[in-house]
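Sequence only, no structure available. Ideas?
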Amino acid sequence: MTLRHSLACSAGLMSTAVLALTGCAPSTPGAQEGKEGTTKLVVAPSSEMSAAWAQFAVAQEQGFFADNGISVELQWPGGSSDVLQQMATGRVQIGAPTPEAVLAAEAKGQDVEMVYNWTRAPVQWLAVNKSGSIKSFKDLEGKKVGVANLASGAKLLCEAAVSEAGGDPSKIDFVATGTGIAANDALKQKRVDALMLWDTEYTKMEQAGSHLRYIKSEAYEDLFSTTFTAQAEWVKTNPELVKGFGKAWAEATVWATENPEAAVKLMWKRYPQTKISDDPKLLEKHVEIFEGRNVSAMTGDPVKSQTLGKYPTDSIDTWLEFARDSKITTTPLKADGLYTNDFVDAYNDFDPEAVRKSASEFAD
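Reply:
I predicted one. Tokens follow.
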């Protein structure tokens, strides 16, 4: 059953993301007319559809996007750098890259703005076989490191962590292993010495029986990760769309947190390719993937403090310092204009208890 808000949002209070990489995509940043008078946006996640992104299905199936006047289309261009490139062409209104890629793009002249702080803790780190000799990021010199693709933000973060550890990232051979079984097999067969992926991918590997050892860098342990981002000019001219998207995502997050099993089932319904088998334990496995990512999104209890989507000012400063020191950027960047908290009140303008009640009473 769809939750309808007691205070319905007007069509002007819309927002969502739809990532259009098709020929019908607009040539300049903007929005298109969607279903039943909604505004269609194109949103680009930075990795394939999985339970980590279950909020999209929840927001679509439970009407959170529609309640905010939005129709959302998802497409997947590749890694974070690919997402940012598609945003620059206007084919994507809102993307979900990682901050290291955002800062690198900004340093190269792309005018982007981070608008919703989703994962409030790091989700990317190094994985090696338990018997491997690698003990730190510095040990990666002369080694092969598997990444999802060479446009992945994880590659940038790995290079930065190596640099911070006193190593030379130019001495690393990065290999595009993809994700899932392909990446897992590359590590098992020692075609790569390590993987630089993210939380949900490692969860899948462990579920498949892999025994991994993780290496994390203290240099970025206090940094936020995946963040919804848009071209700065688009944000300026479409503030109501930004508000609407962020509010719908926040509501979907609360709903899915309350009933993750139902969130996964909605994902299977909306994106049937994600139900990869008839394994009776698949629901349990996908819930584990969702919760593994969601823990970083709910760090600090942002629902209680009504800070879903908010960027702590000190974390922005820490990111800029880390990017400079680790040579992600060589051009000095200022925090002003790089992010905004102007929409946080709008994101959190809903009744969490009503959303939780809707989720707890949901019957598929």
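The chain has a mean pLDDT of 89.
Hope that gets you unstuck.
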